[in-house]
């Protein structure tokens, strides 16, 4: 029995101004706009300036979410960042963000579960609020995947982009958390991973990291594809069952934006009409933990998602991992942050 309700009261999001188009990628690797469009649905991705860090995106997204919720950073009881690309392996990105928001002493930690991170963070935040531990939690999904993307590997470099999205989750009379399903299967990490920089291939040991390009995302694309379609549909069904709902009750699905074909196949398996599915992959590519809050932010901003709607947020990613949350939309405002490249970085290339 939960003591309290939880509601999202503000959303913020941003993407860096630099853009990498399919035509730009044609100049880097043996690919084509036609192949990328047909196989992924992607046209552009936003790429951070060379000196940029994930906190450069996470902080504006967080400030925007605070503004939308009408709160100051000091009003927040806990900060959770979902990211696979923190500024440093440690300390946590959330600690850096807290300091840049001007708060000291606020508990702050990261969730490391790749593209499923925002769904895990929302479930964690809602649980902390519903149990009475905290009254307000700032959750952020932020990534600079361009920093770990191998721009000589056509199988991966066309997919990834940078961005951040954030939400304020607060104690509320009406509980908007209706159900969730989280899961993971780590039996073969190499299906989708960043090999270098951990204890297996530490940065400090010989030249192996650079020689084998271990500091870049490695992926078995087709295996991930099959896993994604089956698991996103199954996870959505599990979360709906826990909420006591069926697919007919869904007003909108906000899926992780990994590949348009994965999204289309998932909602087809669920029997959900395409008009109920939020897709912005053409503009942003796959921004991992940031993709769901950015898509959610744009859908609320455009007036598509309205107060009272039943929204399913569903993701999959490295781990392998998956997760879905069924959430009643309480009509929270959204603020988009318009980022400028800092003056000191002006004149440098897009990536
Ligand atoms: O957040 C999770 C992150 N990862 C994912 O979501 C990835 C999930 N997987 C996918 O999205 C798809 O598997 C990809 C988009 C990565 C690849 O699409 P696919 O339809 O599974 O292509 P494929 O791997 O079966 O490759 C088909 C062909 C191959 O050539 P051959 O062997 O048929 O001659 C590839 O070498 O396409 C080739 N290919 C490319 N051609 C042009 C692979 N990448 C490219 C490219 N441009 N960028």
Point out poorly predicted stretches.
Answer: none
CATH superfamily of the largest domain, by name, is Thiolase/Chalcone synthase
Q: Got a strand count?
A: 14
Number of domains: 2
**N to C succession of SSEs:** EEHHEHEHEHEHEEEHEHEHHHEEE
Q: Report the helical percentage.
A: 25-40%
> What is the distance, rounded to the nearest whole angstrom, between the alpha carbons of the first and last residues?
50 Å
CA radius of gyration:
19 Å
Structural class: alpha/beta
For the sheet with most strands, the description reads: 6 strands, mixed
Mean pLDDT: 96
CATH architecture of the largest domain: 3-Layer(aba) Sandwich
Give the ligands present: oxa(dethia)-CoA
So how many helices? 11
Beta-strand portion reads: 15-25%
The level 1 CATH classification of the largest domain is: Alpha Beta
**If you consult CATH, what is the topology of the largest domain?**
Peroxisomal Thiolase, Chain A, domain 1
Assign an overall shape.
globular
Instruction: State the strand order across the main sheet.
Output: 5-4-6-7-1-14
Q: Which properties best describe this structure?
A:
single chain; 351 residues; alpha/beta; Peroxisomal Thiolase, Chain A, domain 1; 2 domains; 4-stranded mixed sheet; 11 helices; 31% helix; binds oxa(dethia)-CoA
